[in-house]
Amino acid sequence: MSTRTFLLIAIAVAAAVFLAARLVNNDYVFFAGYTVLQFIVLATAWNILGGYTGYVNFGSAAFFALGAYVTVFFYKFHPLPIPVLMMIAGLTAGLVGLGMGYLTLRLRGTFFAIATLALAVVLQTLVVNWDYVGGSRGAYIVRPSDVPVIGPYIHYLFLLMLALVVIALGAARSIERSQLGYGFAAIRDDELAAEASGVPTLRLKLVATTLSGALMGMAGAPFPYYIGYLQPSSAFGLEYAVNAIAMPMIGGTASWVGPLIGAILLGSLQQVATVTISSAVNVLIVGLLLIGFVIIAPNGIVGLVERWRRGRDR
Amino acid sequence: MAGPLLTVTGLGKRFGGFVALDGIDLAVAAGERVGLIGPNGSGKSTLVNCICGALVNDSGTVHFDGKPVDGLLTHERTRRGMARSFQLPRPFATLMVAENLRVPLLYTVNARPGSALSPAQLDARCGELLQLVSLADKAAKLPSDLTQVEMRKLELARALAAEPKLLIADEAMAGLSQSEVDDIVALLIRLNERGVTIVLIEHIMRAVMNFSQRLVVLVSGRKIADGAPETVMRDPEVERAYLGQ
After folding, report:
1. Within 10 A of B31 (CB to CB), how many other CB atoms are there?
2. Is residue B1 a part of any domain in this protein?
3. CB atoms within 10 A of CB A195
4. pLDDT tens, residue order, chain A (314 aa)
5. In total, how many domains does chain A have?
6. Which domain holds residue A228?
7. Do the chains contact at B92 and A179, CB–CB below 8 Å?
8. Contacts of B129 in chain A (CB under 8 A)
């Protein structure tokens, strides 16, 4: 299937999802759905670096929060439409990703992971001490109640996030099938051999950190409008970093399908748990599932299905 | 004919206080088959790593194809036509055998000006290379499904996919049976006949003697002999250092 066909199908599916949600005509569906969509983008973005090149990023929350705080900054400075904010957030987070890559990509494995975690701590400290964006008190964002044509504001946010999902999945899938994808896989499998095969490893890893960071930042930009009140502890929340890792791992990191499946599954489960039990149980669910999958199906759901199919062929 | 394809001058490398290479001079002419031998720890692999750019030499220079390559990264040297296979096979484990060859094709052959391959040509080239090392029926397998000797062949095929002018084979035959060794030597000689210059690093003397037109001996980071294989093997210093007395 060509990338164009894929995008057309993805857009059709997205339109169907939006119309279905409209038919239900309950705002809760949009609020819950928005969160799941947001996690699809985060998981897909994480997977571009973590799944394709094998560099585990624990700092996803930092990129997400960066996007959110771009919005807060411009809300105070000069309000802009959200799609524009998403673009600025993507640019900012992409640049930070590039910078982080430059500083840390000489580190491998655990050391890289720790460095990304440190980045999150540094950024959070900066935001907490920056009064203009609310500091530790947080910032209020007044959400308009309606948007022309579309109607309720949450419908608009939902639609934006849906569009970002299509962009993220399209990007991930086309990387997989491109020269870039082969280069990433070579880096993941053996960096020294990749270099010896002519792969410019550092440059490719920088492409990955930039792309991954940019998508996470874009996912964060509409968040202040969604939540209405943004404080550092919620923007830099543990759940973002944990989910961004857990969802691709549970779905499968080798292809774009994995993060999608993982995010839908885990994201919906968490929404259900939030309503029926409590939101505090979410991280527990993720933790337990992650442990289970690491033991039983290290290659995620996609890996399980593939193993079953290969077993049947024999 | 122009100067040598590879010229190493006064190459030195230290690890802390340990001198791994001490003023190595080496010239390899285009089309030559050179054997590089020496006891364990004599600096053979370090020399390869310095030539290929995986390690940075402390002193001396490396010229390749008439130009200095000092300061170039490994992938840049590979693009200029220098390829290596690793002592222990390092396949791309999650890619299929044919895809393992696609990586160097995409990143070296395609990256050279005027030699971009179409998708069909890429597939064809992967097929040819697999044929060459008789792995054609394993194209859709994962490297973990291969035997030791097949893994070594894949390692060589991947180095060859970059269309090198110079191939450095670092112990491509360690741990193989006699017939497998002959297999690989025959393959290397075939490649050489197609115009690839080859430096072979090897412990298996039978393979080295069958293969090499010239023999270079390293001992404790120094080159102690360089010449026709029979002459070198009769050299008393080589006998003392390499074979013991």
Report:
1. 15
2. no
3. 24
4. 788 899 999 999 999 999 999 888 888 999 999 999 999 999 999 999 999 999 999 999 999 999 999 999 999 999 899 999 999 999 999 999 999 998 887 777 788 888 899 999 999 999 999 999 988 899 998 888 888 888 889 999 999 999 999 999 999 999 998 999 999 999 999 999 999 999 999 999 999 999 999 999 999 999 999 999 999 998 998 889 999 999 999 999 989 999 999 999 999 999 888 888 887 788 888 888 888 888 888 888 998 888 888 777 65
5. 1
6. 3-242
7. no
8. none
Distance CA A162, CA B71 (A): 47
Q: Do A196 and B93 touch (CB under 8 A)?
A: no
- A292 within domain boundaries: no
Counting every residue, how long is chain B?
245
Classify residue B94: in a domain, yes or no: yes
Quick one: tokens of B111?
A: 């990256």
CATH number at residue B144: 3.40.50.300
- Which residue segment(s) compose the domain that B129 sits in? 6-243
CB B52 within 8 A of CB B168: yes
Mean pLDDT for the stretch of residues B21-39: 92
Give the list of residues 6+ apart from residue A66 with CB closer than 8 angstroms, or none: A89, A92, A93, A96, A123, A216, A217, A220
Q: Which residues of B touch A189 (CB under 8 A)?
A: 91-95
- What is the domain count for chain B? 1
**Cβ(B189)–Cβ(B10) under 8 Å?**
no
Q: Per the structure block, which two tokens stand in for A257?
A: 């399908």
**Among candidate residues B69, B82, B90, the one with its CA nearest the CA of residue B168:** B82
Interface contact flag, B162 A197, Cβ < 8 Å: yes
- The contacts found for B238-245 with CB under 8 angstroms, 24 or more apart, are B241/B39, B241/B217, B242/B37, B242/B38, B242/B39, B242/B217
